[in-house]
Design brief:
There is one protein chain. With 873 residues, the chain is of the alpha/beta class. Helices cover 47% and strands 16% of the residues. Strands 1-9-2-8-7-3-4 form a seven-stranded mixed beta sheet, sandwiched between helices. A hairpin with a 2-residue loop joins strand 22 and strand 23 (788-794). 36% of the residues are buried.
């Protein structure tokens, strides 16, 4: 195809965690790393291909930016005429949403997915227009650049130095049925630019020097590839879950490093990070398995430091509870599709290894399957694990060892004592068997010790108590000795077993506390509280999904879902639970709130800590909603503050022009006084001037009312500060001719609403003129400071004490002005509010040598943005 740009395509379908577009509408998005890679060309080519196959295709909105090859693709495609929307004495063209809906084609081509519509349009963003088309069952093909994704906006600004004000939420793009990347190398894109295929000739040099530098383009391309790779990986995980695939697919390196809280943790994390960094896009996951038997003795402070180190290296930290450490480690690794495991060499001594058998690392290697295991040596290996914080419990292995010891020890001890029959008496024999019972109790607990005590009683009776080789006792003291032996054995066994059980319970409580503390740390570190809680529950209890359900209470605004009134408030994992009855584990939180888990039933001991998590989830939900309400109330409060300031200032200013105009008109109508021509003209001029001031105030009031109502939006755009200052001074009349202006010619443009900034500067200059002494006019000077432009309005007046500077921005404050006939214009309160609405700041400072300086800081537009008319899609 002649003129088609060389490109590669990567696509992702069916992203997990996202709902399909409603009413059957399908969304396909062409993603690019920068302008000019060929997204619009690819979209139109796909539209022509679909049209040739018999589909009903229309062009809802396409911007060719004067590119001939792109315009050629429009031939033969039906184009829906654009809507013209008036705004500020200018007419803008936008997609005619109503016309496209009325036409109702099978497929609509909509360019520039992240575009911001002109104020007055039905929706603020074009992607919201697309949602309406999807809801109507129309398939949409669109385009977007990587710099317009909300999550990458700040990263792109750091790379290119150009802020992107047009953004689209990542979730909206993730929800697309297909995302296809239109790719091009940085060198190829720069050649297209140099050949004039992207920008007009007069803009090429500036573009190649600034935004389209090879480094910028390579970085943007990498961002786009990695972002799409993440989405492809999500689709892969969803496919594996849907098809019950548990084996490791080495599509991407995922390195899991096991942490015990020991001093070797830092070494392991850094080694794992280097392994993950060997492949682009590798993931690092730090995992700590909290054993419920309490034998690990992990140091919470060390774990917290290791967590911080892992996160600083770009990894994530996870914690799970598992009685079998190596099994929990491998279960987690397979669930995360890990390709490599990093473990530290054992800190156990050679004697401990000989007595207890293979450690965690050896068992992990034996059962790892296709997961590579790295055993990393460190300075602490072979030095012992140290004393546990709490006593050991009695796992199955120890109980079996107790039974084996009881079976072996009783006959061996009998043979040994029979050989020494002539040298020992019955008391020595009883004490020897009592020692054997205690040893079995310490190893295997209560039941093996009881069996050992019974066996010892029978053996002592048969082999060592007269008459020998008969189960009878001839002397009372021998019977007493045997009875005491049995009682002492049972008591010791009971004490040992109870101590082990309580130790295990204490270790369990410690593990649960550590897990809750870890979750609290995630929340305090700024993570999403509710999502963090559900993720921790899913990981800790090895569940498939965790869902927080809420039932509508019948009140206004209550959430109601289709499943018996239950609705999912938040979820973690695949296949959320629609109602509590469908869950494997449900934990009621309140009458209308329930935590539902799917995966496996849990024992009662797990439900206790799960109840704490449920209460924490409810608190996090309340916090999330309070935060949302506060965010929703903030614009209202700000609007009220602005409106109050406006009304206060206007009401204060209305009195003087009304009184002057009234007096002038009354004098002119008076029949008692005959005015000569000069007096008559002066009274008319007074009335005219006063009415002009009044009309200006009313205009401000109406404009600000529209601004707060959303009908008059702040519309920042690149503007020349010198031109705005000149127009502001013209509004002040002859007095402004004395104002000194010092603005450099090479000053960057500012991203502001020129009309609003003009009012602010006029108000500041008027105040400076009012308080400047005769012969010392105000000075307006500007300078560039990084990504800001600072305009300073300097006067040599009396100044304002620092203690009163906050009050100067309160309506009705006219500090140092005792003339009650003088107004305050729009008021400094309104000036600060308008400045902040444009992303600027307004602050008072002392003028060196006396006086007041009002410092107005505004966002600067970088050089490339001034050179380019606007970034095309």
């Amino acid at each position: 195809m002649r003129g088609a740009p060389a490109r590669k395509a990567m696509s992702q379908t069916g992203y997990p965690g996202q709902q399909a577009p409603p009413a059957g509408g399908q969304l396909r998005i062409y993603l690019g790393s920068a302008a000019g890679v060929g997204k619009t060309f690819a979209m139109l080519s796909e539209g022509r291909r679909r049209q040739e196959r018999g589909a009903d295709v229309v062009v809802a909105f396409v911007e060719t930016h004067g590119r001939q090859h792109t315009a050629d693709q429009l031939r033969g495609l039906e184009v829906v005429p654009r809507a013209r929307i008036p705004y500020r004495d200018t007419s803008f063209e936008e997609m005619d949403l109503d016309a496209v809906l009325a036409r109702h084609p099978e497929i609509a081509l909509v360019d520039e997915f992240a575009h911001t519509n002109v104020p007055g349009s039905r929706n603020a963003k074009r992607w919201q227009d697309v949602e309406e088309l999807l809801a109507a069952g129309i398939e949409v093909i669109s385009t977007v650049n990587i710099q317009h994704l909300e999550s990458l906006n700040d990263v792109v600004e750091k790379i290119t130095g150009v802020p992107q004000r047009e953004t689209v939420p990542d979730a909206v793009v993730r929800a697309a049925d297909q995302v296809e990347m239109v790719d091009m190398t940085a060198e190829a894109l720069r050649r297209r630019m140099a050949h004039g295929n992207i920008y007009p000739a007069e803009k090429i040099d500036a573009a190649l020097t600034h935004y389209f530098r090879a480094g910028n383009l390579s970085a943007l391309r990498e961002l786009a590839l990695l972002w799409l790779a993440d989405k492809v990986d999500e689709g892969l995980q969803r496919y594996r879950a849907a098809h019950d695939i548990h084996g490791t697919w080495e599509a991407r390196e995922r390195v899991v490093v096991a942490l015990t809280g020991g001093p070797e943790g830092d070494t392991l994390i850094r080694r794992a990070a280097r392994i993950a960094a060997r492949s682009s896009g590798g993931d690092l996951l730090a995992l700590h398995v909290t054993r419920s038997d309490g034998l690990t003795g992990a140091n919470p402070a060390a774990l917290a430091a290791q967590r911080q180190l892992a996160e600083s290296l770009g990894g994530s930290y996870h914690q799970v509870i598992g009685d079998d450490v190596h099994d929990a480690l491998l279960t987690f690794a397979r669930a995360e599709n890990a390709t490599q495991l990093v473990l530290g060499a054992s800190r156990r001594t050679w004697l401990s290894s000989l007595l207890t058998g293979p450690g965690v690392s050896m068992r992990t290697i034996r059962d790892s399957g296709d997961i590579d295991v790295h055993i990393v040596t460190h300075a602490q290996m072979g030095r012992g694990r140290g004393l546990p914080k709490a006593g050991g419990g009695l796992p199955l292995r120890r109980r079996l060892a107790g039974y084996a010891l009881a079976v072996v020890l009783a006959p061996l001890l009998t043979v040994f004592l029979a050989v020494l029959r002539n040298r020992l008496n019955l008391t020595s024999d009883v004490l020897a068997f009592l020692l054997a019972v205690i040893a079995v109790a310490l190893v295997g607990g209560f039941v093996p010790a009881v069996l050992e005590a019974v066996a010892g009683f029978l053996l002592l009776n048969f082999y060592f108590t007269p008459p020998i080789h008969r189960f009878t006792i001839s002397q009372a003291n021998n019977a007493l000795a045997l009875g005491v032996f049995v009682v002492v054995g049972l008591v010791v066994s009971t004490v040992v077993d109870d101590a082990a059980r309580r130790t295990k319970q204490a270790a369990r409580a410690s593990a649960e506390s550590a897990l809750l503390a870890t979750t609290a740390g995630s929340v305090l570190r700024g993570q999403q509280a509710l999502a963090a809680v559900l993720d921790r529950v899913k990981e800790a209890f090895a569940m498939d999904s965790v869902t927080l359900l809420e039932r509508g209470s019948g009140q206004a605004g209550a959430a109601r879902g289709p499943a018996g009134g239950w609705a999912a408030v938040a979820t973690s994992g695949e296949h959320p639970v629609p109602r509590p009855e469908d869950a494997d584990v449900e934990v009621p939180v309140t009458d209308n709130l329930c935590l539902a888990l799917r995966g496996r039933p849990l024992p009662a001991t797990d439900r206790r800590v799960l109840g704490a998590f449920a209460a924490y989830a409810a608190a996090a939900l309340d916090q999330q909603r309070l935060t949302a309400e506060a965010e929703a109330a903030r614009p209202i409060a700000e609007a009220d503050r602005m409106r109050t300031a406006l009304l206060a200032a206007v009401s204060h200013d209305l009195r003087t022009p009304l009184a002057s105009a009234k007096a002038a008109v009354t004098s002119l109508r008076s029949e008692d006084v005959q005015w000569d021509a000069e007096d008559h003209a002066e009274l008319l001029a007074t009335a005219d001037e006063s009415l002009d001031k009044l009309a200006h105030l009313v205009d401000n009031l109406l404009d600000m009312s529209r601004l707060q109502a959303g009908a008059l939006s702040v519309f920042p755009r690149p503007a020349d500060l010198a031109e705005i200052v000149a127009r502001s001074l013209d509004d002040l009349g002859p007095a402004a001719k004395t104002v000194l202006v010092d603005i450099p010619d090479d000053l960057p443009e500012v991203g502001v609403d020129p009309a609003i900034l003009e009012r602010v500067i006029a108000n500041l200059a008027a105040n400076a003129l009012r308080y400047s002494p005769r012969g010392q006019p105000p000075l307006l000077t500007a300078s560039a400071l990084g990504d800001r432009v600072e305009l300073r309005v300097v006067d040599r007046g009396p100044g304002i004490p620092e203690a009163d500077r906050d009050r100067m921005f309160v309506p009705f404050q006219r500090l140092g002005d005792t003339d009650n006939t003088a107004g305050v214009g729009l008021g400094l309160a309104l000036s600060r509010g308008l400045t902040e609405a444009m992303g600027g700041t307004l602050a008072p400072e002392d003028t060196p040598g006396g006086g007041l300086t009002m410092s107005l800081s505004l966002p600067a537009v970088p050089g490339p943005a001034r050179a380019l008319p606007g970034e095309p899609g």
